[in-house]
Amino acid sequence: MEQLTQMELLQLEELLRAEELAVKKSEFFADNCQDADLKKIFQESSRVHQGHLDGLLGQLRSLNGKTATGGSLI
Fold this sequence. Notes:
Elements (H helix, E strand, L loop, with lengths): L5 H27 L3 H27 L12
């Protein structure tokens, strides 16, 4: 499989950070929410964003972790 370009790596890093932040925020709101219905919504949001994060990481790993930056992504 082809290696990612520098631009693609930057975009992937941005997506990973955005999904990680969405997971953390959703978990925070779920943990601090008093309303049971809202708590469930935030918990589901956290699960969805974690799934996105896992999917992006899986795609990255399928490229054998070869990155042009040499650094780790998340």
